[in-house]
């Protein structure tokens, strides 16, 4: 074999050897980063779990305390507001150390169904546990569906600048028939059932459907009004705007009977419940969702119906 061929062979062997070394290093780094990520996720999961366990342990041991449940954001099925509120209320009332329950409210409202479910659950639990009072403390907003829930409480406390009320119902949507005509789009909708397409945004207004939708809203509004009257009773003052969907600041809501006084979670626990120590019973998302948010990953989606009835 010539010197030239020998040199070329040695060079190829060196290149092949270097490539194998680089591949091994690459695999090692990939394994390292995967293990590192698993370790990080494991630590986050462990910390979340331990905090949850610590919170539960505090709630089930020691002397009397005030149970606090957050009602924050829109009341929807997507964020499982109703399910979480009912579960939190059940846990709080079952704890023998709970001296009172405070719902820390900051919500513009939402689903009338979910609001009604939580309202009914509060009234049911109050009957079963007559010695445990329920109070609502409003931070910024307690309107519509949130106020529906609040009406079940023994007392409602606000800040002078809190927004309270909006006892009304709405159903929103859009109409695209004019735009379709300009674009030359022909709607070819077929239904079985004359009212099946009620609320369809691509069909022209239908007086009969409009009347049906209005009756649905009126019926839900009547349920809302009845719930508020049952919950607040003689505290409510007669005002023509009371059930019009109007909102008031906290300082005006008190003389109208929509609220009982000023207070914060801390002050109500200390001065009203007489149990200054508070325990948070708010139901959090499942472990996987919490871990995903901790590492910056969150999925959201879904399609909202254009015929969406809300207590916003």
TrEMBL record:
InterPro entries: ClpP/crotonase-like_dom_sf (IPR029045), Peptidase_S49 (IPR002142), S49_SppA_C (IPR047272). Pfam families: Peptidase_S49. Keywords: Hydrolase, Membrane, Protease, Serine protease, Transmembrane, Transmembrane helix. CDD domains: S49_Sppa_N_C. The chain crosses the membrane at residues 31-50. Its EC number is 3.4.21.-. GO terms for molecular function: hydrolase activity. It is an enzyme of class 3 (hydrolase). Residues 127-274 form the Peptidase S49 domain. Belongs to the peptidase S49 family. This is S49 family peptidase. It comes from Chromobacterium piscinae.
């Amino acid at each position: 074999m010539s010197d030239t061929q020998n040199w070329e062979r040695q060079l190829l062997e060196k290149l092949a050897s270097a490539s194998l070394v680089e591949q091994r290093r690459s695999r090692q780094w990939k394994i390292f980063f995967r293990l590192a990520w698993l370790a990080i996720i494991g630590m986050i999961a462990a910390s979340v779990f331990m905090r949850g366990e610590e919170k539960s342990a505090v709630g089930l041991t020691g002397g009397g305390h005030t149970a606090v449940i957050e009602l924050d954001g829109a009341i929807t099925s997507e964020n499982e507001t109703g399910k979480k509120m009912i579960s939190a209320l059940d846990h709080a009332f079952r704890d023998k150390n709970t001296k009172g329950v405070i719902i820390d409210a900051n919500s513009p409202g939402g689903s009338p169904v979910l609001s009604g479910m939580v309202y009914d659950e509060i009234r049911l639990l109050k009957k079963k546990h007559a010695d445990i009072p329920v109070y609502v403390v409003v931070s910024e907003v307690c309107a519509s569906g949130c106020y529906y829930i609040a009406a079940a409480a023994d007392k409602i406390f606000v800040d002078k600048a809190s927004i309270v009320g909006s006892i009304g119902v709405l159903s929103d949507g859009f109409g695209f028939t004019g735009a379709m005509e300009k674009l030359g789009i022909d709607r070819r909708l077929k239904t079985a059932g004359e009212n099946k397409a009620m609320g369809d945004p691509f069909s022209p207004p239908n007086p009969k459907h409009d009347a049906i939708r209005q009756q649905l809203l009126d019926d839900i509004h009547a349920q809302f009004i009845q719930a508020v009257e049952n919950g607040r009773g003689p505290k409510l003052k007669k005002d023509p705007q009371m059930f019009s969907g109007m909102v008031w600041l906290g300082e005006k809501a008190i003389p109208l009977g929509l609220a009982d006084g000023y207070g914060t979670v801390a002050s109500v626990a200390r001065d009203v419940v007489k149990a200054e120590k508070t325990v948070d019973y708010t139901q959090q998302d499942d472990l996987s969702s919490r871990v995903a948010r901790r590492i910056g990953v969150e999925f959201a989606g879904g399609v909202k119906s254009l015929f969406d009835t809300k207590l916003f």
